[in-house]
């Protein structure tokens, strides 16, 4: 015969099992992978090379506040590069105003970025990272302009900008 205690115990067990199974989906950081990259430093070296904000974004998959980066309003010709290893990532020719508060591009430079699935916050997204150092740059969405229809929504603090030489 089912008792109140039976329902409480089985309900508690079910909630515990469900929570344990879903915990990785709600993690605020992307899963660590066993990937190796051309540019590699230990944690202390990355902390010494990067600002606190850059470290949080590039090495811990953080996100800057919208409209916090001056690169969101950068409209000159030039190249956006990885703040971790200086690899050229995006041309200003592919930058557009997405009205999201983050620098957005419809295409990266050839061979500059890599992607992986990111299920943090319980949502399946495509994370974009620097192919040379593995630094987290942002996410890829399919609501961008032509010709690709893609929006590479990048953290400005994860990049530097250089205009063409004079």
What is this entry, summarized?
It is built from three helices and nine strands, in the order αααβββββββββ. It is of the alpha+beta class.
Distinctive features:
single chain, 166 residues, alpha+beta, Metal Binding Protein, Guanine Nucleotide Exchange Factor, Chain A, six-stranded antiparallel beta sheet, three-stranded antiparallel beta sheet, 3 helices, 9 strands, globular
Strand content: 15-25%
For the record, the count of structural domains works out to 1
Instruction: Report the CATH C-level class.
Output: Mainly Beta
Q: In DSSP terms, counting alpha (H) and pi (I) runs of 4 or more, how many helices?
A: 3
What CATH architecture do you see?
Beta Complex
Radius of gyration: 20 Å
User: Mean pLDDT across all residues, rounded?
Assistant: 86
Strands of the widest sheet, in order across it, are 3-4-8-7-6-5
Morphology call: globular
Give a count of the beta strands, DSSP E runs of length 2 or more. Answer: 9
The biggest sheet, with number of strands, parallel, antiparallel or mixed sense and barrel status, is: 6 strands, antiparallel
How far the N terminus sits from the C terminus, by CA atoms, comes to 85 Å
Helix-strand pattern? HHHEEEEEEEEE
| Helix percent band | 10-25%
């Amino acid at each position: 015969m089912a008792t109140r205690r039976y329902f409480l115990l089985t309900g508690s067990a079910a909630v515990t099992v469900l929570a344990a199974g879903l915990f990785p989906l709600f993690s605020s950081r992307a899963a660590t992978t066993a990937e190796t990259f051309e540019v590699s430093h230990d944690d202390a070296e990355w902390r010494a090379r990067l600002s606190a904000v850059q470290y949080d974004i590039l090495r811990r998959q953080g996100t800057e506040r919208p409209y916090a980066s001056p690169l969101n309003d950068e409209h000159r010709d030039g190249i956006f590069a990885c703040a971790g290893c200086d690899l050229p990532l995006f041309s200003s020719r592919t930058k557009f105003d997405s009205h999201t508060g983050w620098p957005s591009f419809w295409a990266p430079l050839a061979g500059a970025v890599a992607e992986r699935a990111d299920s943090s916050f319980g949502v399946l997204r495509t994370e974009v990272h620097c192919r040379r150092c593995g630094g987290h740059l942002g996410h890829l969405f399919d609501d961008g302009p032509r010709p690709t229809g893609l929006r590479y929504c990048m953290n400005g603090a994860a990049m530097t900008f250089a205009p063409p030489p004079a």
